[in-house]
Design goal:
Layout lengths: L2 H17 L3 H13 L3 E3 L2 H13 L2 E6 L2 E6 L6 E3 L3 E2 L4 E3 L7 E2 L2 E4 L5 H10 L5 E4 L4 E3 L1 H17 L6 H16 L6 E3 L4 E2 L2 E2 L2 E9 L6 H10 L5 E4 L8 H9 L5 E6 L1 H8 L2 H16 L5 E4 L12 H7 L4 E2 L14 E2 L2 E2 L3 E2 L2 E4 L9 H19 L2 E6 L6 H5 L2 H16 L2
Parallel strand pairs: 1-14, 8-9, 8-10, 14-15, 14-23, 15-16, 16-17, 17-18, 18-21, 22-23
Antiparallel strand pairs: 2-3, 2-7, 3-6, 4-5, 4-11, 12-13, 19-20
Helix pairs in contact: 2-12, 9-10, 10-11
Length: about 425
Amino acid sequence: MKLWQKLSQVKPALVRHLVAKNSRPYEQILEHVRAQNNIWIASQGEYIAWWQQRENATLKISVSDARCHVRTTLENGIIEKFPGEFLDSPTIPCPETTFSGEVWITIDSTLEQKWVLIEILKREGILNYRIADEGEFMLSRQKVGNLLQEIKDRMRRRGGRLLEADISAVRQMVLDKLAAHHLPLLRVWYHPRRNGLVTRAVFSARYDVDRAITNLARIRALEQRYDVPSTFYLRAFCPFYTAQEIKKLAAEPWCPEIALHGEFAANARKYGNELKAAQTEKKYLEKLTGYPILGMGMHGGELTCNLSEHTEHAIQQAGLCYDTTPRPKRYFFPFRKVVDGHLSTAYGLAHSLSDVEILADRNYERVFYERAIAKLNEIYEQNGIFVLMLHPVYFGFLAYLSQPRNWIALVKFFLRYVQTP
């Protein structure tokens, strides 16, 4: 690439850094979220831990004397009588039913795509399922086999993830099976009970720490005023900050969760391939922070794009629990994709809005706030999780430049950048 072309790319980025001011609109967003006391504010690691606990919990439903008795092993779990009625008692009347006994949603053992069905049921909190050859509430091969194959085909075409319409179709099948016996759908709600209240949605902020690690203390001071956790995504081998700065950050009492800002494709040149790069980055960041790194989001890369056909495999095999890499998708809950022919162990979390999507003009702060609130309202209606992607440098580029060590790193990188073919 010619030098003038590189410089033309630097100029818009510099203008955006100088104009973008995240502190004021972000504080307004936090005020808005805090005012709605049924929104859970969590780091991505905290939220995924809850999601895993929910998927691994048990749900027991039994019917006797025209009453449904329900219990779950999930701590702070909420039982919903679909749609939208949250139970305060483990027993509810079912006066019209003639059924008596345990309520099991039975998956036909002969189904070839039963893992698809299980994944959908777990996502929907229908945890009272089993695999068997017969049952009163049977999802048989004849009834759902063709649908599951179609769902699998659509997953393959749509990057390996489930579609909301397919999830709704399976949920409706379960509703119909229960309705035939005049029973309601009782399931585990998506979110926990917090401070005695039903959580209707989740807000989670993430920071791509590409350069401005020195701005994080100011950001956390703002978040702590609202008792807000977040997640910092750090590059393991970064030209803009050092290993010592990462160690110092991780030791701060105000430091929240740290995740990996991966550069697998760029580092594959040094370590052999993307998987080895992922393993090396994760291990090194764990050494610096002193605790396990559970999540990652891919760094866009100043010099190299870090997404390839090998990236999903690297994430899977490196033992990471969740991935918030920005990709074009509209999804409101964690999802697991099919990778290498198997269901991934890493959950995807779709970021819903990013500060880099906001045009850097004089109305930046107003536009940022309005778009964030509009997206939050949309996700609230879907009872999902709002992941807001932010960049520390937009919280004060001049504050970043005020520290001489940052100038040194920028100059060194710029010289390398303009010399790269």
